[in-house]
Amino acid sequence: MRHSIKFLLGDEPRELSSFDPTMTVLDYLRIEERRTGTKEGCAEGDCGACTIVVGSLEGEKIRYQAVNSCLQFLPTLDGRQLISVEDLPDSSGALHPVQTAMIRENASQCGFCTPGFVMSLFALYREGAAAGDPPELETINDVLAGNLCRCTGYGPIIEAARSMHQPAAGPDHFEQNSAATVAALRAIQDSQTIHLTGPDGRQSFAPTTTDALAEILAEHPGATLVAGATDVGLWVTKAQRRLDPVIFLDRLGEMKQVNETATTIEIGAAVTYTDVERMMADHYPDFGEIIRRLGSPPVRNVGTIGGNIANGSPIGDSMPPLIAAGATLVLRRGGERRQLPLEDFFIDYNKQDLKSGEFVETITLPKPAPGSRLFCYKISKRFDQDISAILGAFNLTIRDGKVASVRIAYGGMAATPRRASGAEAALQGKAWTRKTVDRAVVALASDFRPLDDLRASAAYRMQVAGNLLVKAYLEAQGAGVETRIIPYREAAHA
Amino acid sequence: MKFGIGQAVPRLEDNRFLTGGGRYTDDLTFEGEAWGYVVRSPFAHAEIRTLDVAAAKAAPGVLDVLTAEDLKHLGPMPCEAMVPGRDGKPPAAPPRPVLAAGRARYMGEPLAFIVAESYEAALDAADLVEMDLDTLPAVTDTEGALEAAAPELWPEAPGNLSLDWEIGDAKATEAAFAKAAHRVKLRLENNRVVANSMETRAAIATYDEAAGFTLYAGTQGVWGVRGALAKAIFDIPSDRLRVVTPDVGGGFGMKGFVYPEYALVMEAAKRLGRPVRWTADRSESFTSDTQGRDIVSQVELALDEDHKITGYRVESVANFGAYLSQFGPYIPTLAASMVIGGVYDIPAVYVHVRSVITNTPPIDAYRGAGRPEAAHMIECILDQAARQLGLSPIDLRRKNFIRQDQMPFTTALGAQFDSGDFEAVMERAMENADWEGFAARRAASEAAGRLRGIGMGYYIESTIGAPTEEVRLEITAQGRARFYVGTQSQGQGHLTTFAQILAERLGIEPQAVDLIEGDTQEKDGGGGTSGSRTLQMIGNAALAVCDGLIGQGRDLAARLWEVSAGDVSFDDGLFRVASRNLTMGMIELAARLGELPGGGDEALESVATYEKSGATFPNGCHIAEVEVDRETGAVRLEAYTVVDDFGTVINPMIVEGQVHGGVVQGVGQALIERCVFDADDGSLLTGSFMDYGIPRADDIPAFSFELKSTPCTTNPLGMKGCGEAGTVGALPSLANALNDALSSAGLGNVQMPATPERVWTILRAG
Question: Which of B25, B121, B555, B618 could disulfide-link to B202, CB 3.0 to 4.6 Å?
Answer without folding.
Answer: B25
